[in-house]
Structures are given as structure tokens and as C-alpha cells.
Specification:
The protein has 313 residues and is an alpha+beta fold. It folds into two domains: 98 residues, 2-Layer Sandwich (Phosphorylase Kinase, domain 1); 200 residues, Aminoglycoside phosphotransferase (APH), C-terminal lobe (Aminoglycoside 3'-phosphotransferase, Chain: A, domain 2). The protein contains twelve helices and ten strands. The protein has a five-stranded antiparallel beta sheet, with helices on both faces. Strand 2 and strand 3 form a beta hairpin. The longest helix is centred in the last third of the chain and has 29 residues. It is globular. The termini are far apart. The model has no long low-confidence stretch (mean pLDDT 95).
Length: 313
Amino acid sequence: MDTFLNWDSPEWLERVQSWTNQNLAKLGLEPLGKLQKVSGWALGQIFKQNTNEGLCFFKAAAFLPMFSNESQLCAKLSELMPEYVPQTICSSSEQQWMITRDFGGGLPEDADNSLWSKAFQRLARLQRHSTKHLDELLQSGCLLRRIADLPEQLSDALNDSEITQDLADDFRINKDGIVLKVKLAVEKLESFDLPDTLVHGDLHIENIAQVNDKFIFFDWSDACISHPFIDGTYIYRMPEGENKEEIVNAYLSQWSDLADYARLRDAWDKAELVCYAHQAISYASMKKALSSEQMVDLEQAFLNAFNRLLAKS
């Protein structure tokens, strides 16, 4: 099993280079030069490798309690739903390493609003498609994170001093009330009876690429099977206005066979607090698993997740 603790060591990079060369050779690809680092932090490391047929990308992901086995899951997604994800050409579930074909990279954060609408409309189609494959996805390293479990998980987090020590005093004073509001929101959201689907878990425009006029989705380490509207976190946080409404409407249009628009919109609105609770639990699990040094780059995101939960509750 790989571990993020040795990602900076020359020995680890030598192992990765050897594994990459061997697996590319099996596919008839000739590595040109060595792996070049693209980015890296406590959650993962990304390198690019030039070959005689263009660029490939290597990724190593951390083994964390609330993370899916990204390499195993992406290999399965590449098999089951290739039109929605980058092509995974080799993977190691034991190491959580993977190599994908070049897909051009994510869209810019300031991408035109029409791209957001089309991308999230396509996300809904991916989610609907995924319901045919949930058992296979679960068997391939994807976590099951039912929203019904969130209140208990949140209660555990808010009663853990390691989690709450840097949070606002309101979490300590009002923790029971916050958990109760999440519980009621979960119960209300469940009453709409929408199916669980594949959820990306960290979906923003920079984790979406446009390839041949189609949108594909990458960076699946936070993926799980859960309520589909959990993927709305970045849309919920957008300023109110026509741009946001256009994106929400495009996304909800793909669920119209299950309920009328008014009911879907009600479910969408009820999901916001549940969505923030889901993300807060994800960051709480990271804080428990990572060292203080490894959390440096994640600390602000951890605080933001809990503060959004507090503001909405």
C-alpha cells in the first residue's frame, strides 16, 4: 500500500517511474524523458509523462477514511461510462496509482456561464446513468455515504475537541441545535424519494474538462454513492441572480421525469444544508487522519466548510 508519507522521497519517485515505464510499455507506449511534477499536496500527487503518442498523467491519491479508492474507481468508470471521464489506461488499487490519457485539463474558474450550465446538465446525465451501475461502483472502491448517517457523524465531529478546537464558539454552544437542523433537513430531503447516484464530492468548474464539445469529469477522490444534490456545493455558494438560476435550471431539467419542477426545486433548496454537512464531515475526517503539517494547505478549506454549515443552520 502506498502512503503519502514518502511522496517526497527519491525512492518513491524511482518506484513510480519504474511502474509507469513498465505499464506504458505493456500498452505499446514509449516513455520520452522522465515524469515531471504538475502538482502535489497531502491528498495527492500528479505528474505528467511524455510518450511517443503524447502526454499521459500519473496520479497517486492518499488513503483516507472518507476517500474512495480513486484509481480503482476511475478504472471502472472508464470502462462503464467512458464518455464522462478521462481514459484510465492503467491503475493499481493497492498503491492507489493511476495513469490517464491527456484530456486537456480543467476549465478556468471564470469560464462563461453557459459552460457551467451545460457542464452541470451533463453531470446530471452522468448521475442518472450511474444508477445502473451502483453495485459495480461500490465493488470498485466507491464509498457509500448515505445522508441518513450525517447527523450521527456530525454529532461525533462536534463532540471531538480535535475537530472543534479551531472552530467558532457557536459550534460548542449550539452543537445540538446544529445537528438537529441537519437531521430535519435530511429527513425532508429523503421524503422527495430521489435515487442515490454517483457523486463527485468536490465538483467545481476546474474539475471539468471540455473535450470535443463534451464535458468530462475528473479528480474523483471524494467520490461516493449518495444523494445527487450533494454535488451542488459550488452552485449553492454562487451569488443569487440569473446566472445561478440558469445553472440550477439546466441541472434540474435532467430530473423532470421524477418530479415536477416545483418539487425538484424544493428538494434542491432543502439539500443545501445537507450538502454543507456532508462536506464538513469530509474535512473533519481529513483533520483526524492528517498531521498538522499536512493540514496546512487544507486548514482554510476545513474552516470554510464548517462556517458554511454554521451560517446555513
